[in-house]
Amino acid sequence: MSQPRAWIGGGALAVGMTLALGWLSQVPYDAAGDVDAVVRLAWRTRGTRVEECRRLTAAERERLPIHMRQEEVCQGRTVPYRLVVVLDGRSVVNETVYPSGARADRPLYVYHEFAVRPGWHDLDIAFTREGVPSDTAGEQERERLGERESAAPPRLALTRRVMLGPDRIVLVTYDAEQRQLILKGYGAP
Amino acid sequence: MNRFLRRLLAPADALLNGLYGWRLNPLYHSGALVVLTFVLLLVTGLYLVFFYRLGDPHASIVRITEQAWLGRWIRSLHRYASDAAVVAVGVHAFRMFAQGRSWGPRALAWVSGLLLLGLTLVLGWTGYVMVWDVFGLVLAREGARLLDALPLFSEPISRAFVGERELPGAFFFLNLFLHVALPVGLGALLWLHVSRVARPGLLPPRGLLWGMTGLLLALSILWPAPAGTPADLLRLPSRGPYDAFYAFWLPITRELPAALTWVGGGILGALALLAPWWSRPRAVERPAPSVVNERLCTGCEQCYQDCPYDAIAMVDRTDGRAGIMARVNPALCVSCGICAGSCAPMGVGPPGRTGRDQLAQIRDLVAARAPAPDDVVVIACTHGAGGVAQESRFDGAPVLPVDCAGSLHTSVVEYLVRSGAAGVLVVACPPRDCQNREGPEWLEQRLYHGREAELQDRVDRQRVRLVYADLAEVGTVAAALELTRRDVGMMGQARREADIVLEAECDLVAAQGLDGRQGPERRQRSQGLEGRRR
Questions:
Q1: Is the domain of A170 the same as that of A89?
Q2: Are residues B195 and B223 in the same domain?
Q3: Cβ-nearest to A25 among B156, B164, B243
């Protein structure tokens, strides 16, 4: 290739590649895709802890190391909740929310997103504690004192008509101070 | 597969050689260009970190962008250099794989290179999250979604981005810490990456260095990188500028369940990391490492100095004679054969490819068909060299293929000239594209600059020509062949000698070397050299 042609060709290629780099560095992309607006349900709450306890027999206590000989042993669990969401008259969620963690002793998490068209939407949410087994409900149910305050009430509910503009997200979350579900975001009244 | 990929690469190499010459061909310097971009990122990043505010990240980026004289283009240069880094890493990895330079002793470089790429992408991810614009938010949320699929965290990370409350400053602090601390890991990986090569060329030649820096700088000034719309946790991400180099995976993963993304990514990552094992030749096809003939080794250290992979060490002799000798570490030797070309007494090299083996081969060829008085014999590297190496004749000229031009012993060239060949055209790969890093460079020095094992003075160098050509540059070889034929045609016939016995001369060299050149001073120098190389 002759020198002038190489200079021109080389320069043009270098400039072209640099411009391509610049363009690819800021290529237009619509991360939202076809979604116009979103109703988002997201909250975290501590569930109610239920413990089943029984007294150890003398023989059982004898088999334990001396520093572990308790009168009573308890096995606990956190009670799951039932989440039912009705959006514009259509049931979109009907599920049991179990506590997280390998021992199911961590808080309950709710996270759902529903793509909707901008405009008015009817939202009906119920978050209800599932029943405590009848054989333990009476004397064996123990809500620990520390958890009693922070645990969610047996039933949380929200029924609201919300307005969503284009690209807006309305968030339904749990307010631990008010102990109720609240709305946040552009669609919130 | 490597051969097919190499064929894909060849036209691009040839085109850029035509435009920039092999010295400045950016494809040949892809690895060094990565280091250059890292340097640019470090310098510009040091400036930017002084103006970054954890309390209001996006506003601080906007303020930097509004510094018309400095901040705007420094930030843009930081960003474009990071993009160029991904391109250069991609080209470099593809190149090494296509050339079959990813297995055996090179596996460490391959694996560490892939880890470097991964770390670079993570660094880019943290960098974009630092900006905290819409793109940063999308990256953060997608990253959190993927991480939440792993049983690592007691609480889902995604919760931080639902909009329940403002993001805590601790998040931005952790992100900044990662962005600043990870380059230390990058440096360590880079060291590991080049730890098995001698004399690594970390920076590109000056013309390419300033050319690329200038282009990125010009782009930064003329087309500054925008600061996107600030992130809003309660608003859908708007259509905006996304960096395709760092978010090429985003449109795919967003459509897939997180677990599937991990499985797919894990399979691809494992395939890439294990490439040195599944892409290597079968055991019977793998070339054997070099061996040293202790009887012939004079301890001259030339092979030790020439080895591009630090695979040769000088050790005390074990044959009862005083002094040192070379020893090849088979775990580091890639069987390039460059030591065969460097050894005057022909005492080292891969089995069947030592200088003596090459001489035997050329003697058989000459015996079968003596060169005609007007014959120019072509010696071509099988890895590239204009694609002529596989031909027995190129444009009527006899062709002798060699595994690497750097492994060619100069005695072969001498033998051909003294056998009556009008000329010898050695076709080597361009020096920065050598399969074995330094072969053409050492060959040129051996032919024309007296580097051991040098072409003897008694050989008329006007009859010897060295040309650099890539796989697709057959035209370059054809032109060089025509030129050589014309030049030697004007010189008259070469004198043909009979009964050329070069091995005897080499044995003499070996004997002289052991008698006279192997003194305590030489050994001391060798030990000093060893210390420096460590």
A1: yes
A2: yes
A3: B243
Q: Are residues A14 and A41 in the same domain?
A: no
Give the integer Cα–Cα distance in Å for A158 and A146. Answer: 26
What local confidence, expressed as pLDDT, does residue B252 receive?
92
CB of A188 within 8 Å of a chain B CB? The answer is: no
* pLDDT per residue as tens digits for the range B458-510: 888 899 999 999 988 999 999 999 999 999 988 887 777 777 777 776 666 66
Q: In the predicted model, is pLDDT for residue B521 greater than 60?
A: no
Decide if A41 contacts A85 (C-beta within 8 A): yes
| Residue where the block lists tokens 């990391």 | B273
Is residue B445 classed as helix, strand or coil in its secondary structure? helix
Looking at chain A from residue 40 to 79, which residues have their Cβ under 8 Å from any Cβ of chain B? 40, 42-44
**Domain extent at residue A14:** 1-30
Residue A24 to residue B158, Cβ atoms within 8 A: no
Task: Indicate whether A161 belongs to any domain.
Answer: yes
CA distance B453 to B207: 32
Asked if A86 and A10 sit in the same domain, the reply is no
Whether residue B273 is found in the same domain as residue B346: no
Top pLDDT among B507 and A118 is at: A118
State which residue of chain A sits closest to B473, comparing Cα positions: A1
Which structure tokens are listed for B70? 């400095």
Angle between helices A3-24 and B71-98 (to 10 degrees): 110
B123 shares a domain with B100: yes
Task: Please tell me what DSSP assigns to residue A138.
Answer: T
B275, B110 in Cβ contact below 8 A? yes
B524 pLDDT more than 80: no
Q: For residues B299 and B303, what is the distance between their CA atoms, to the nearest angstrom? A: 9
Task: Identify the weakest region by mean pLDDT among A129-143, B158-172, B405-419.
Answer: A129-143
Residue B522: pLDDT over 60: no
* Chain A residues touching residue B154 (CB < 8 angstroms): 100-101, 106
Side-chain-facing half-sphere of B504: CA atoms under 13 Å: 3
Output the domain CATH number for residue B125: 1.20.810.10
pLDDT in tens, A78-96: 889 999 999 999 999 999 9
Q: Based on the fold, state whether residues B274 and B307 are members of the same structural domain.
A: no
Query: Which of B163, B211, B223 is opposite residue A171, by nearest beta carbon?
Result: B163
Is residue A149's pLDDT more than 70? no
Helical residues (DSSP H) of chain A, grouped into ranges? 3-24, 58-63, 134-137, 145-150
**Same domain membership, residue B99 and residue B46:** yes
Do A39 and A9 sit in the same domain of this protein?
A: no
- Do B333 and B258 fall into the same domain? no
As a whole number, mean pLDDT of residues A140-155 equals: 59
